[in-house]
Amino acid sequence: MLAPTPPFRVMIIGGSYGGLSAALNLWDLTQARLPRFNYAYDGPPPSQKIQIQTTIVDERDGYYHLIGSPKSLLCEKLASESWTRFQDIPAIQSPHFKTVQGTVSKVDCAAKVAHILNTNTGATTAEPYDFLIVASGVRRSYPTVPQSLRRDDYLEEVKKHSGRVRKAPGVVVIGGGAVGVEMAAELKMLEPDLGVTLIHSRDRLLSSEPLPNDFAQRVLATLREDGIDVILGQRVVNTVAIDSEGETRVWRLTLSDGREMTTGHVLSAVSRCIPTSTYLPEETLDEQGYVKVQPTLQFAGDIPHADCHYAIGDITAWPGIKRCGGAMHMGHYCALNIHQKMLSLCRGGSPNFKTLAASPAVIGLALGKKAVTYTPDEGTRYGEELSKTLFGEDMANQSCRDYLKLPEACQYEGPNELIGE
């Protein structure tokens, strides 16, 4: 028989792929069910329930499908499907879940208290927790991600952005990383008569990623096959508006070799990812601001209550390409380990933690009607059928929602054998 405990208070900072994965897998486990991602779970379902209260804090008012940004910022229909307010997600509609639109200004690991500025009320409150999951990711600039924090504002942002792009006589995308190549490809697919140019400062696309050359060459070939003009090895050193009539502008770009070109619209896909970790103590971070974690995803170093503090997703100082699949995988392991810690607190004994292995170099890009992927086992693959399988028609929006089981109502069968009642 498990010793009774008060409800465990779980605070999750960030309600995207990793945060929701952790929240929902932990909810399953504490309700004596197999986790919804049960590929790493050993043994039968838990035999008894544990009482928890989960609070999710996010700057946005909902879950945003970040993978779809290169297309959703240009397509109003997809945009509408890509942002779901937390209050409209069936999986977290329960008194056991609380969502707060706001920002965390400070975390006191010793006191286990987070200071939250509520966007809607303007009030700052000190919220105690028993377990903290940091999943707030990194900050990216527009148009890599939308800047709006509310769904209605986001839809208006997309309407204005897509309108400006469509009215332009041509578009230049600056930056040949994952975002830039997808942005150029999706734009060309949506507006096939629009002239699209992609400019990258290095001699190879995706130059900052640990990927083989044949993958980068396949991406380049796919873009050019679709009619995109790709300029490599040139930096844009100056951008000047030279003509403006109403909402239409003409821009003159100067390249590092002295060449000049004009275009109707410029999209910058060159943005340094900045970790959103300013609310955490300095000793929890590396020199770039990423959270140092152990393979158990607990905070690393001499941190008070480190075994109750976890970080997952893009904000972690963990090797590998930052991906939504990796964030959800981390959220799953985080849930398993927190559940183990809860069990050890209730009944004694040592928790059986899962440890995260180094992430292999894996990537999948949606390039218009085609996809290009790389895994160490399969190498580089590409094609239209691959795109249909991986991304469908909505940049994998519904696939991610279904994988997280967001459309399914939160299951709660009452306090039978509930620890903490």
TrEMBL record:
GO terms for molecular function: electron-transferring-flavoprotein dehydrogenase activity; flavin adenine dinucleotide binding. It comes from the Eukaryota. InterPro entries: FAD/NAD-bd_sf, FAD/NAD-binding_dom. It comes from Penicillium oxalicum (strain 114-2 / CGMCC 5302). This is FAD/NAD(P)-binding domain-containing protein. One of its GO terms (cellular component) is cytoplasm. Residues 8-331 form the FAD/NAD(P)-binding domain. It holds the Pfam family Pyr_redox_2.
